[in-house]
């Protein structure tokens, strides 16, 4: 079978959702994924998550946000999207949501706070 379709480029993209919710066993798997991805020049790893206390995700974000030149800085780029960045969310929406889910959960999920105490 022949075809006229030409592939100009292979794409090596992996997206992981809710990364902070995954246990340490998954973190070991993540290390294996990264080891494979770095073998491709055009690879991308996209990690999406909200905070979940002190864990591998919190450390990854903290290290990504370090100043250039810091030896602990990693190569990840952090993009935070807060509740106020979403259209049609205002202080009334915030109050209603806090009433539904509680302040601690709201701070974690919508204000992206890494809450490390119970």
Q: Tell me, rounded to a whole number, the average pLDDT.
A: 87
Q: Biggest sheet: strands, sense, closure?
A: 2 strands, parallel
Characterize the overall form: elongated
Radius of gyration: 19 Å
Oligomer: single chain
The helix-and-strand class reads alpha+beta
* End-to-end distance: 61 Å
Which range does the strand content fall in?
5-15%
Give the fraction of residues assigned to helices.
Answer: 25-40%
Order of neighbouring strands in the sheet with most strands: 1-2
Contiguous uncertain segments of 5+ residues: none
User: Based on DSSP secondary structure assignment, what is the total number of beta strands?
Assistant: 2
Q: Strand-and-helix sequence, N→C? A: EHEHHH
Count every helix, treating DSSP H or I runs of 4 or more residues as helices: 4
Give structural notes:
Helices cover about 35% and strands about 10% of the residues. The chain has about 120 residues and is of the alpha+beta class. It has a two-stranded parallel ribbon. The radius of gyration is 19 Å and the shape is elongated. The mean pLDDT is about 85.
Key features of this structure:
single chain, 36% helix, 118 residues, alpha+beta
Q: Summary?
A:
With 118 residues, the protein is α+β, with helices and mostly antiparallel strands. The protein has 4 helices and 2 strands; from the N terminus they run βαβααα.
Topology (elements, then pairings):
Elements: E1 12-17, H1 24-37, E2 43-48, H2 56-64, H3 91-101, H4 103-110
Parallel strand pairs: 1-2
């Amino acid at each position: 079978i022949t075809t006229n379709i030409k592939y100009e480029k292979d794409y090596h993209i992996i997206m992981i959702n809710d990364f902070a919710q995954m246990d340490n066993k998954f973190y070991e798997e993540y290390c294996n994924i990264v080891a494979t991805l770095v073998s491709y020049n055009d690879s991308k790893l996209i990690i999406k998550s909200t905070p979940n206390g002190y864990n591998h995700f919190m450390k990854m974000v903290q290290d990504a946000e370090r100043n250039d030149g810091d030896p602990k800085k990693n190569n990840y780029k952090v993009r935070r999207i807060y509740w106020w960045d979403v259209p049609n969310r205002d202080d009334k929406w915030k109050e209603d949501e806090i009433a539904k889910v509680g302040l601690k959960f709201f701070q974690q999920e919508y204000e992206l706070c890494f809450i490390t105490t119970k």
